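Section 5.1 Outputs to date
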Amino acid sequence: MISTMKSSLLTFVVLLVIDASKCDIDLNSLFHSSGSAPPSEPQNVPTLSNKMESVPNITPSDALGDLSQQFVPYRSSRHDEFDWALTKKVLITSNENTVISTFLVKLLLSILAEAAGTGTSTHRELLSVLPSVQTFTEARDLYGKAFGSLLQNNPDYKLNLGAKLYLDKFITPQQRFQAIIKSSYYSDVESVDFSKPEETAAIINEWCSNSTKNHITNIVNPDDISHAVILLLNTIYFNGYWVQPFPENQTANLPFYTDAKTAITAPFMQLTGDFYYMESDELDARILRLPYKGYKFSKYIVLPNKKDGLAKLLTNLDSSTLHRAQYVLQQEEIKVALPKFKFTNTIQLNEILKTLGIRSMFTFQASLPALARGQAVQDRLQVSNVLQKTGIEVNEKGSTAYAATQISLTNKFGGETEFIVDRPFMFMIEDETTGTLVFSGKVTHPEY
């Protein structure tokens, strides 16, 4: 019997800086990535067909949970439209491995909507982009349900979520605003002295380190906050366990095609088991669901049929097509070969959010009267940076994150379906009890 093993770790941090002048962030101080380029085309790469023949069958056991448990996708609702609009913009814009938590971005923007109040230009812009803030009651209800689900204690996974607003001492936040964001958005407000950058940076970094279980220890340096007047920080840490862990002794180096003609070698995890799976003509792709223990979170792998099909997939993808695909997933015996990967990235969101229609908050025309009023703050509050620090590791044990058909291409082998992830693909992690898209991303060249 295979013992239950840690599956994956994810840590995400969203940093939103509001200040009276541009504040540049030293990105290298937050995450450290090798930044190495993919190796050149390999020599003597082993073939997948030979390797897959020795993949063991995994028999469900009490330790692994009931694999026959029925999966029913959460009925989609209009609040996820922003998630997919932002996901597509981010993934299409980048040529690299990318992972984002749109939930965290949306949360911070919803807090800004509360700060803007009703009727301001900033609120109208956010209203046009975020379906979740059409009314404050709707937004508070949405996040209340999402947090109620995400923050449940469960021995099968670890998830920590934190949000904090740091205000310069000259800003006195309105009590009503503080009460709302604490009760509905699980966020706290703390006054600090930005004129003492070393002291303030130490306070902020300590909070961030605690929130991410020491995976991010330096989100800001003293120079980063010397001109800031407000910092909005959001962190999320997820550490899960696969329902069916991959046997480590079956991991082998196999070819991964970075484009239609170029292959690199990468360590592939392999197992055979019962998974929910489907082939989508609409997306020209195949979809595999990999559940985490507890049957609350699942990772979805969306694999284009063509080796160079990821760009087209991302262009055609939206929430409705993906949800339609989830509803027709069927449980099958699947031989899975999935590359291990581990990477970090920093996403600058200012320009992307502007293309989605959010503009005034990046200027001195930003209006946040519900946050604070008075001459002291007039024309002094604007959003300087919206950026997200993200990292993800997927291995035999699961996922750790720190801060997601042409039948002729389906290879049937021995009565089982092979799902060989040997080309650029998209993935997402969803809270299936609420339909919350917690993480989404793409892998163009696995590195581990």
